[in-house]
Every structure is written in structure tokens, then in C-alpha cells.
Design brief:
The complex is a heterodimer. Chain A is mostly helical. In chain A, 86% of the residues lie in helices and 0% in strands. Chain B is mainly α. The longest helix of chain B has 36 residues. Chain B is globular, with a radius of gyration of 25 Å. Classes of the chains: A mainly alpha, B mainly alpha.
Chain lengths: 195, 658
């Protein structure tokens, strides 16, 4: 039996390292997109620059939604570790709701921009903007689907060691998306409004 | 009612028109149908499905990689033969195929050789050898390994599918925009190129993570990093490069795909787009990529030289340091691929110098191998012959590389045949020779019999001689001003050199044929005459742990996890005297169950690619949902392993050893 326990611990160890390495590769992906954005942000094709079209108030709201969702996902993980599956599910539900709220605002923002003629095919700046922010949004969507699947898993099997292991990877992923968002918030929106 | 949403832009006008492509387009499906018919006739579907397609055994996945790589070597080799036949005949007015087809052929040649031959053979050999060398039961994530392979396979299917329907990209193996942008290349060819590389590239990225964790977490007890075989070090460094470089490729290809599919302006020449950014990004991946390929080949040579010189590797620590130095430097040299872009003298000088510096750690390695051989009792088996060919050829290629690192000189030879000769010099003479050495070296561990030495050596000599004939003339042509990728030229004095080069390609093809013949003859000897069976499991008197298990290596790799206390553990264990393990030493082990989920994920990914190529958006959406569904169902499955009890294992091991 002890061999089996060791085997599970080993698996957790490997999965955790592997997942962190995956996040590092994701950082490289975002780094490429950030670099492209920074290079192309001047290429507005004669249209207004970012500062004039961004709705900073709404971005502020969506930033708070995402940061709060990060907190609730962390609390959900702590609850799961205390084997409090019910509370964990509740907090996970909050995370999912906040994530969906974030995505809704993002889609609304994209829709507004496109309606006013600032679609991704208009200029290099807008191509880079939609791709960078949209890639983050896609990650959020993946995270939400993952969270729903995890919720289903925990509902069926409870706070098992496997559930904790799977959930730990999810929270890392969710915090990571938070971090990427802070960079987007700074480099795309704040710097966009300043310059 | 408009039904075009259903079939996208699929239409009969994309069927092949010219005779060369048409014959290939008819021949290839017929060949596949014949193969499938044969499998059905001999009732081998169950065997294929259970033993290979759904297998998570790294060694079997490795063999599948090798089969794809060898098949693609034939395809890419045929392309090369066509290219050089065209250039040899050009002044006589004979046109074997039109300019557009010629462009497709050189694009396919480059893309296939790098992504599906070199990468495939590299991942194949790593899968076969790495877990065994580390004393591990398998790779860290066996299921992910299967996903990686099948994504690679899907990319291969897409790149070859273009032959039958729609034609391939004509934009060169790195597909520079704006030529590959929507404006100048609206057809499906470039999309085929993008999605073949994108899907295979994601497979490579996942492999990079997988092997890194394997090396960091799955080593046998006692094997510290500095006690690892040097091959494992080379793989570790190469996989770190994969993890850092391949996401850049994914992003770059993604942006190009968005330019083409959504009319965006990343790399267009209007609306603020920046084509030069593409060239920077693609080489930020592309330069590390060449080291990703060559480093494992260096690792193989390190094992081969130490084994056949019957000495421990000279300068192990400097070898590791050299690998790490190359890892670092390979990220700060990419701009040397486009000195002529006009980045300015200071930028060019920086990248020129960093490029030259890379020659130092590489030189360290060459000297280490030479000193390993010095005073060794060298056995000139065919892996060693490959090494000797490599040492000469690669050094020449390295020196011409340093020449081109001088920006002033590069302005003269940039994008000429000189460059073509240089990178074939290092890729054939370095990467391919290394992989051939690796195939010969580890073959008995996989199949249980050794390869025919006579034919193997002959193949190596053919490659070497053919290489000289094919590429030395290209150096001269490059200096004379022949640019790369031309299908015709006005200066008749070039023709003799192009003819010699064409003959060289034919000699290389003879080498390829001999390699294939070597497999067939050796297999025949094994089945009929039983003269070349590897009874001991250690045919070369090896030094590392893979030679401590019987050949062919059992599916569980090691019945008892080995304990390691020094480098070249197996060599010293043999010196100390071996003992049979006692029955009590066996323990229960857990192994991954076979699964077809990896195959289905790859099929869905392939359909995503197909949808993008032909603008069938509903197919993209549905396939994405299916792929995500498979991934989620897999991550939430707990029962993925089965147990072999100690008693069963004891029996299996005794049987394998007898």
C-alpha cells in the first residue's frame, strides 16, 4: 500500500512541475503577443489611438471581477483542502460567475469597438489588440469550462486527494491568468490612455 | 439557398493540374488504399490498434515516430531530387515542371525535412532511449506522449494531403509575408503549411514539457544530474529550448493565420502591418530550432564515441557547460539570418559576434570527442563510421557558418546557394548523421537484433560521398552569385556544377536506399537465419543503463528499478560482477493502460486544421468542442493504470532474461 501512496505522490509531483512548465510556455506565447502589440500599437491606419477608444471605467470593473475571482478560487482551494467540499463548490461557483462576468464585459467591449468601426481587420494596432486581449479571454473561457468540469467532479466524488490535486492545478492556472491580465491592464490600457 | 457555408471554399478547381503533381496525387492514395487493404487481408487491424495505435509505451511511440520520419525522408528526398534535376537541366530548355510547382516543391522539401524528418527522428530516438537511460519505467506523462505523437502524425497527414487537393504553399519553408499574406497568396497552400506546422508544433511543445519533467523527476535513485548520461543532458537542454521557442512559433503562425482568415494586419504591407516583425519572430523560434535538432545528435555521438572507444567520455563537465552555453547563446543570434534587413551596423555587429561565440562551445565538443577517442580501443562499427563522417562534414559546415557570421561577408552570400550548402552541411552532416548513428546504435534494444554492418557502413559512405558531390558545388555556385530557390538561370557556366550537384543527390538517394535495404536485409536475417540476434541485451558492450535490460526491452523497461552511484553505471556494474536479482526484490508496479483518446484528440485537431484551410467554420467549431470534450473527459478519469504484481513480474523477467 505504501508503494501505491508513493506512486500517487510522485504523480502529483510530476503533474505539478509539468503544469508549471506549461505556464512558462504560455508566458512565452503571451510575450510574443505583447511584443507584437508594442511594436504595432502605432500602426493605427489613420484612426484614433488606443487612448481615445478604450472605455477605462469598464475595464476597471472587469479587472475587479477577475481579481475577486482569483480570491474566491484560492479560498475554494483552501476549503477543499479542509475537506469542506460544500464550501469549496460554493466558492468555485462564485469564481465561475465572476469569470463569466469578466468575459461578458470583454465581449461587450469588443462588440462596441467593432460597432464603431474599430474592428480587428481595420489596422495593425487593432489586430494586435484584439489578438492579445482575445487570447487572454480564450484562456479565461478554457478556465471556466475547466472549473465547471471540476465542480462536477467534486460533486460526484467529494474532496478526494485526486480532487485536491486537480484543483491545485486549476487555481494556479487561474492566478496565472490574473497575472497576465495585470500586464494587459498596464501595458494595453493604462499606457494606452497615458500616451 | 446558399450552401457554401457547408463546404467552405472546397471546389474542383483545386484538383491538381500539372502531370507531376497529378501522378503523385493519384499514386499516394492508391498506395494508402493498398496498404489498408493489406492490413485488412492479413487481419492485422486488432494488432495495430491494440499494440501500436493506442499504445502509451514510449518505445512503441518512438518506433512510430521513426517510421513516419523515414517515410518522410523518402518524400523529402524525392523533392530534393526533383529540384536538382530541374536545375541541372534548366539551360537545355527542358522544364520538368512549372515555376509555381518548383516553388511548392522546395517549400515542401524544407518544411518536411525539418518538421517531419528531423523533429520526428529526434523525438523517436528520445522516446526509445531516454527513459531506459534514466532507469525510468516510462516518460513522465505517457498519455501526453501519445497526444504529441498523434498531433505530429496529423501534421504529417495535412502536409501530404495538400498534394492531393489544393496544392502546397509556395512561400518557402519559413513562409515570409507579405508573399504568404492574403493579398499575394489567397489559395489554400499557405494555410496547409500553417496548420501542418501549427498542429505538429503544439505536439512538439507538449513533448518538450514531457521530456523535461521526465529528466527532472523520473531518474533512477542515486542518479544526480551530473551522473546522467550526456544524451540525457543534451535532451534536457534541447527540450528547454523547445519550451521557450515553440510558443513563439505558435503565436507567429497564429498571427499569420489571423491575417489570412480574418483579414488582420499583423504582417501586411499596408494598414500599419510589419512584415519584418514576422521575420524577427519566426527566427526567434527558428534559430533555437536548429539547436533543438543538433543537440540531441551531439548527445548521441557522445554516447557512441564513448562506447566504441571503450573509454569514459572526455570532459563530461565541459560537455555539460558547452550545452548550457549553447542553450543561452542560441537565443541571441537570430538576427544573423537577416543581416541584410538593414538593422544597422551596431546591431549586425552584436549578432555577428554572438554567432561567432557559439563556435567555441561547439568546438569544445568536437575536441572532447576527439580526446575520448585518443588512446581508446576504437571499434569501427557503423555508428562510429557515422561519427567519423559527421566530424569531418559538420566541422566544414561550422566553419562556413562562422564565415557567414561576418555581416560584411554575409551581404555577399546572403540567400545564395552558399547558404543552402552551409545549412545542409550542418543539418545533414550533423543532425541526420547523428540520427542514423542513433538508429543503428539503439536498433537492437528495440527489435532484439543488430543491423547489418556491411550495408550500414556502405550507406554511411554513400551519404558522405553524395553529400560532397551535392553541396560543395553549391558553395562555389553561391560565391559565383547563384541565388537560392531558382529554377532557371542564364549563365551556362553554372550548369556543370548544377549537374555535379544533381549526381550528388542521386548518390545520397542511393544511401537512403541502402539504409532501407539494411533494415530489410537485417530483418530477413533475423527471421530466417537467426544470425544477428542480440542475446545479451548489450551488443556493443555499452556503458549506460539501457544496455542492462534484455533486448528487445520489455514493456515495463526495468523489472527492478536500478540504483545508481556513478556515471556509466552499467559499465562499472559489469566490472564489479553481476548478480541475478532475488525473488523478494521484485515489487508490484503500475503501468498506464492503453487509450485511444490521444488519437481522437489528434483527429479533432486535424479537422480544425482542415476547417481553417478550407474556411469550413462549422467544422472548426464542432471539432474544437470535440477536442475539448476529450481532453476534459481524460483529465477527470482516475483509473488510467493497471498493476503487475511482483510474482507476475518475476516470471516475466525470468522469461525475458533467458
Amino acid at each position: 500500500m505504501s508503494a501505491h501512496v508513493n506512486h500517487t505522490a510522485e504523480k502529483q509531483d510530476k503533474a505539478s512541475l509539468g503544469f508549471w512548465l506549461y505556464l512558462m510556455t504560455d508566458i512565452m506565447l503571451f510575450a510574443s503577443l505583447f511584443a507584437s502589440y508594442v511594436i504595432l500599437r502605432g500602426g493605427t491606419n489613420g484612426s484614433p489611438a488606443g487612448g481615445e477608444i478604450f472605455n477605462l471605467e469598464m475595464i476597471m470593473v472587469s479587472t475587479f471581477l477577475l481579481l475577486t475571482s482569483s480570491l474566491t478560487s484560492g479560498l475554494a482551494f483552501l476549503a477543499l483542502k479542509r475537506s469542506d467540499a460544500k464550501r469549496a463548490l460554493l466558492l468555485l461557483g462564485a469564481t465561475i460567475t465572476l469569470g463569466i462576468g469578466f468575459l461578458t464585459l470583454e465581449l461587450y467591449e469588443f462588440g462596441e469597438l467593432i460597432m464603431h468601426g474599430h474592428g480587428p481587420a481595420h489596422s495593425a494596432f487593432l489586430s494586435a489588440f484584439f489578438t492579445l486581449v482575445g487570447t487572454h479571454g480564450l484562456h479565461i473561457l478554457v478556465g471556466i469550462i475547466w472549473a465547471i468540469a471540476l465542480g462536477d467532479y467534486i460533486t460526484k466524488r467529494g474532496a478526494t486527494p485526486n480532487a485536491i490535486r486537480k484543483f491545485s492545478l486549476f487555481t494556479v492556472f487561474w492566478h496565472f491568468l490574473d497575472l497576465v491580465w495585470i500586464f494587459i491592464f498596464t501595458i494595453v490600457y493604462l499606457l494606452g490612455v497615458i500616451s | 439557398m446558399d450552401w457554401s457555408w457547408l463546404t467552405g471554399r472546397l471546389s474542383a478547381e483545386y484538383l491538381p493540374q500539372d502531370p507531376v503533381t497529378l501522378s503523385a496525387a493519384i499514386g499516394m492514395p492508391l498506395g494508402i488504399i493498398a496498404l489498408l487493404a493489406a492490413v485488412t487481408y492479413f487481419k492485422k487491424w486488432g494488432y495495430l490498434w491494440n499494440e501500436w495505435i493506442t499504445s502509451l509505451d514510449a518505445k512503441k511511440i518512438g518506433v512510430m515516430y521513426m517510421i513516419v520520419a523515414i517515410l518522410m525522408l523518402l518524400r523529402g528526398g524525392a523533392d530534393a531530387l526533383m529540384l536538382r534535376a530541374q536545375t541541372a537541366l534548366a539551360p537545355t530548355g527542358i522544364e520538368l515542371f512549372d515555376t509555381d510547382t518548383f516553388q511548392q516543391v522546395f517549400t515542401a522539401h524544407g518544411s518536411i525535412m525539418i518538421f517531419f524528418v528531423a523533429m520526428g527522428a529526434m523525438f523517436g530516438l528520445i522516446n526509445i532511449a531516454l527513459p531506459l537511460m534514466l532507469g525510468a519505467r516510462d516518460v513522465a506523462f505517457p498519455f501526453l506522449n501519445s497526444v504529441s505523437f498523434w498531433l505530429f502524425f496529423t501534421g504529417m497527414v495535412i502536409i501530404n494531403g495538400s498534394l492531393v487537393f489544393g496544392g502546397f504553399s509556395n512561400g518557402g519553408w519559413l513562409g515570409y509575408p507579405p508573399l504568404t499574406g492574403l493579398e499575394y497568396n489567397p489559395g489554400p497552400g499557405v494555410d496547409y503549411w500553417i496548420w501542418a506546422l501549427q498542429i505538429a508544433g503544439i505536439g512538439s511543445l507538449l513533448s518538450g514539457i514531457n521530456f523535461t519533467v521526465t529528466i527532472l523527476k523520473c531518474r533512477a535513485p542515486g542518479m544526480t544530474l551530473m551522473k546522467m548520461p550526456i544524451f540525457a543532458w543534451s535532451v534536457l537542454v534541447s527540450m528547454v529550448l523547445v519550451m521557450v521557442a515553440f510558443p513563439v512559433l505558435t503565436a507567429t503562425l497564429g498571427m499569420l493565420a489571423l491575417d489570412r482568415a480574418a483579414g488582420m494586419h499583423f504582417f501586411t504591407s499596408d494598414a500599419g502591418g510589419n512584415p519584418m516583425m514576422y521575420i524577427n519572430l519566426i527566427w526567434a523560434w527558428g534559430h533555437p530550432e536548429v539547436y533543438i535538432l543538433i543537440l540531441p545528435a551531439f548527445g548521441i555521438f557522445s554516447e557512441v564515441v564513448a562506447t566504441f572507444a571503450r573509454k569514459k567520455l572526455f570532459g563530461y563537465a565541459t560537455m555539460v557547460a558547452a550545452l548550457l552555453a549553447i542553450m543561452f547563446l542560441s537565443f541571441i543570434v537570430w538576427q544573423h539570418h537577416f543581416f541584410t534587413m538593414g538593422a544597422g551596423a551596431n546591431v549586425n555587429a552584436f549578432f555577428g559576434i554572438t554567432t561567432m561565440i557559439i563556435a567555441i562551445p561547439t568546438g569544445v565538443k568536437i575536441f572532447n570527442w576527439l580526446f575520448t577517442m585518443y588512446k581508446g580501443k576504437i571499434k569501427f562499427a557503423s555508428p562510429m563510421v557515422w561519427f567519423m563522417c559527421f566530424a569531418v562534414t559538420f566541422t566544414i559546415g561550422g566553419v562556413t557558418g562562422v564565415l557567414m557570421a561576418v555581416p560584411a561577408l554575409d551581404y555577399q552570400v546572403h540567400n545564395t546557394m552558399f547558404l543552402v550548402a552551409h545549412f545542409h552541411n550542418v543539418i545533414i552532416g550533423g543532425v541526420l548523421f547523428g540520427f542514423f548513428a542513433g538508429i543503428t546504435y539503439w536498433w537492437p534494444k528495440v527489435f532484439g537484433f543488430t543491423l547489418n554492418e556491411t550495408i550500414g557502413k556502405l550507406a554511411a559512405y554513400m551519404w558522405q560521398v553524395g553529400f560532397i558531390f551535392a553541396f560543395i558545388p553549391l558553395y562555389i555556385l553561391g560565391l559565383m552569385g547563384a541565388v537560392r530557390r531558382i529554377n532557371t538561370y542564364d549563365d551556362p557556366s553554372w550548369q556543370p556544377l548544377f549537374i555535379i550537384s544533381g549526381i550528388g543527390v542521386m548518390i545520397i538517394m542511393l544511401g537512403v536506399a541502402l539504409t532501407v535495404l539494411q533494415f530489410i536485409v537485417s530483418g530477413w536475417q533475423y527471421w530466417k537465419k537467426k544470425t544477428n540476434i542480440d542475446v545479451s541485451g548489450d551488443p556493443w558492450n555499452g556503458r549506460t543503463l539501457e544496455w542492462s535490460v534484455p533486448s528487445p526491452a520489455p514493456f515495463y523497461n526495468f523489472a527492478i528499478t536500478p540504483k545508481v552511484s556513478r556515471r556509466d553505471e552499467w559499465w562499472y556494474q559489469k566490472k564489479d560482477g553481476l548478480t541475478q536479482p532475488k525473488k523478494e526484490e521484485y515489487q508490484d508496479i503500475e503501468l498506464p493502460k492503453n487509450t485511444s483518446v490521444g488519437v481522437w484528440i489528434a483527429v479533432a485537431a486535424g479537422l480544425v486544421g482542415f476547417g481553417f484551410i478550407w474556411h469550413i467554420w462549422w467544422l472548426v467549431a464542432i471539432s474544437l468542442v470535440v477536442a475539448v470534450g476529450f481532453i476534459i473527459s481524460r483529465t477527470l478519469t482516475d483509473e488510467t493504470e493497471y498493476t503487475i504484481t511482483a510474482a507476475e513480474l518475476y516470471k516475466l523477467d525470468r522469461k525475458a532474461r533467458s
